[in-house]
Amino acid sequence: MPSVITLPSNVEAERSVLGAMLIAEEASEIALGSLTEDDFSDADPRNKLIFRAMVKLHDNARPIDPQTVIDELITLKLDKAVGSTSYIFDLVSGIINPDNIDQYIQMVHEQAVLRELLLKVADIQTKYASGVADIGTFIAQSNDAISIIAQKRNVQGMRSARDVAEEVSRNLKKVTAENRRGLTGIDTGYKQINSYTHGWHKGDFIILAARPSVGKTALGMNFAYNAAHIARVPVAFFSLEMGATQIMQRLIASRSCVTNDKIQTGMLSSNDKVKIASAIDEISKTELYFDDTPNCRLGDIISKATRLKNSHPDLGLIVIDYLGRIRYSDKADPNARQMEVSYVSGALKTLARTLDVPVICLAQLNRDVESTESKIPALSHLRESGSIEQDADIVMLMYREDYYTALGQSVKKKGWTKDNKQPEEQPEEQQQKPNDNGGMSDVKILVAKNRNGSTGKVTLLFQKAYSRFDEPSTAYEEAQAAAESRFN
């Protein structure tokens, strides 16, 4: 059993809050809007009772001063518990400056959060001692409970328009002085995407969605590497579907321009070996961190990302591949999957804001997109939950025309009926993939949602054999625009 400990408190800060409330109406309003009775400790029970009387006075639209508080304590039959009325006047005489109420409140609040945290840890120990049926679920639930309490510490007062405007002005001067080509966040590595996003921003939750085999893992990997290599920041890559070795093989192929097949089979020329050695040296200089736990639980991702942030305060980006593989617990209910995805999506948004790090999460589009005439995806095609669109700051959808050309041939093999009814969708790894020759493909990146910017379309060139995305040349874009204009 856990040993008994004395719970933390700051009695002097509690007295300062109460004293400020007794002599300044503004201080009373601030404290009543920031604290509850439970924020006061049991170290001096009188403080909690006096605050209760103040809350009652406020609820009845009565002024708060030493005499009204004494009268209210008598009415509530709490005067004997508080003891001598001289304590009320001691609170008043002990206050130095009621204008410091915010600092007093913060000290009281932090001690209250710390007490709640320690009590929750003790509760977790007690539950463990009584027996745990499922370790994974126990860890996930414990982590969630602690995370919720830890977030309470971030409660802050409201800021004036002047303070916020001055902060924006300072940031603007900093960005202008740095001359970062219009970037205000981490470089995506692609000028066209930067023109919409201005980089990946702290606290943003970004969704990159596509049908299976379109190239979302490769693009997510390219985003991760670009942040680590160009911006030179630590990057976390959670791969729930592929092993870290496979991801690294693809990354080496992307940087060396030696095909994945050659790297996997070892059929390498002397020139290939030189290029691979150079790529490995380049990659090794980055701060890329991989976690390849299959079907990872949400609590594990949050815990590992938080630990990495603590050890690397400059953590610049988190990439997760992919949303559909994340589980809240080991005993997930398939019938409640939509609710589970909604919870996971919201939790990842909270993670981005709590760690102050952009989080890119890959996601799968549902099959409805293939029944449309254009095959061009929309936000409504996000799989499993509409809350993904709501939680995300940016949603990017991938479209590859040659993928659907090949897919049209495989559809008949799947036995789709004349009325276009579709069979139950299989897990991604079991689905028949379109024939792909490994050549160059045009991939449209549709910026379908952008909370802080405009939406639009970007074209990238995908070389599947190298798992590599590049931007097209100006001449290529002009030729493509001319070709597309013939059909408009």
CATH architecture of the largest domain: 3-Layer(aba) Sandwich
- Rg calculated over all Cα atoms: 29 Å
Distance between the termini: 74 Å
Under CATH, the homologous superfamily of the largest domain reads P-loop containing nucleotide triphosphate hydrolases
Q: Please mark out the parts with pLDDT under 50 across 5 or more consecutive residues, or reply none.
A: 409-438
Q: Which strands sit side by side, in order, in the main sheet? A: 3-2-4-5-1-6-7-8-9
- Main β sheet profile: 9 strands, mixed
Taken as a percent bin, the fraction of beta residues is: 5-15%
What is the fold named in CATH at topology level of the largest domain? Rossmann fold
Order of helices and strands: HHHHHHHHHHEHEHHHEHEHEHEHEEEH
Summarize the topology.
Blueprint: H1 11-23, H2 25-34, H3 45-59, H4 66-75, H5 79-82, H6 86-94, H7 101-129, H8 135-151, H9 161-178, H10 191-197, E1 205-210, H11 216-229, E2 235-239, H12 244-256, H13 260-265, H14 270-284, E3 288-291, H15 298-311, E4 317-321, H16 337-355, E5 359-364, H17 387-391, E6 394-399, H18 401-413, E7 440-450, E8 456-463, E9 468-470, H19 474-485
Parallel strand pairs: 1-5, 1-6, 2-3, 2-4, 4-5
Antiparallel strand pairs: 6-7, 7-8, 8-9
Helix pairs in contact: 1-2, 1-6, 1-7, 3-4, 7-8, 8-15, 11-12, 12-14, 15-16
